Amino acid sequence: xxxxxxxxxxxxxxxxxxxxxxxxxxxxxxxxxxxxxxxxxxxxxxxxxxxxxxxxxxxxxxxxxxxxxxxxxxxxxxxxxxxxxxxxxxxxxxxxxxxxxxxxxxxxxxxxxxxxxxxxxxxxxxxxxxxxxxxxxxxxxxxxxxxxxxxxxxxxxxxxxxxxxxxxxxxxxxxxxxxxxxxxxxxxxxxxxxxxxxxxxxxxxxxxxxxxxxxxxxxxxxxxxxxxxxxxxxxxxxxxxx
Amino acid sequence: xxxxxxxxxxxxxxxxxxxxxxxxxxxxxxxxxxxxxxxxxxxxxxxxxxxxxxxxxxxxxxxxxxxxxxxxxxxxxxxxxxxxxxxxxxxxxxxxxxxxxxxxxxxxxxxxxxxxxxxxxxxxxxxxxxxxxxxxxxxxxxxxxxxxxxxxxxxxxxxxxxxxxxxxxxxxxxxxxxxxxxxxxxxxx
Lengths: 242, 189
Fold this sequence. Notes:
By secondary structure, chain A is α+β, with helices and mostly antiparallel strands.
């Protein structure tokens, strides 16, 4: 058996996929040919490694995680920047020890108030955060974050970013009835006016993270409401923009 | 057929290097799209819960972002580094679940931290990722022979390809796989 022929059969030999006569011929050649034996040596460990991958199919990377991840990093980056602007770590520690806060409101005049905050875990603070570098813009165009509160233990957080022709609403909710079929609707509202931003379901743990888009622009609405029910009448969560 | 050109591990290291300073999110997005799927598979397999696995994956990349400055490309490939972060995050999640019995995460197996089985699972997912890097034709040969236990002759019958093609494709597939694994730092013994 020629070396070229043996090389061609070597894959099948390593994977134990040759017919018995072919296998024996390759084995006999390997015993006498150091060059082919060396090539076999390079591949012989692969089946043991492949056995670990049996049944494993690489899933798609979940897009929602990508969104949450980018949001979290942008958020942490913004907080670091605020903390850095607020002074040295030592100054921050001193202020904290004195009961002060390390965060400095960016735009006190337009700071968002929180209505009906339930669930202290999320904190009652509301931060307007800049999404871009540099000084905050004079108009509150960069983005808002507000806490949503409601009855029945549900709580949430919304980040509002000016998007193409409206607002991109990032919504994090927890404490909803888990695993139900209920569809929740997000609405951007002011007195006598309401625009839908989309719908979502809660996961098996009563949580949801969604990115929705509404044609309503920042400044056109004063309140975010999450509603549910056949006529969308029941408010599950509410957060006010002042 | 030539072996695939290995994607330079250096390119991944550059992504990690850019993580800390990149304000656009592109470096993070790039890294996530390269490794998010397999790390999600690894976490889902280890924890058995989609929500928990998603949290782990998010945590892995956030930790990577926070500690990007400590990454040393001379010590480990980016993939290896991310898997190690994921392994720690999974162990942490299992510990948290064990003190909060309401969470139905998989029981720790074998040793206290599930360390041995996690190591094996990590290896498995990296090998699965290496297989994904092969051409579809090469991957098909390996899957049919290794995972379905078909002989070269049976594969030829099944696919309608000449037996010689099946054999040479299988050989090239294994050579490519070996190269990819070497590049990933997972060389067979």
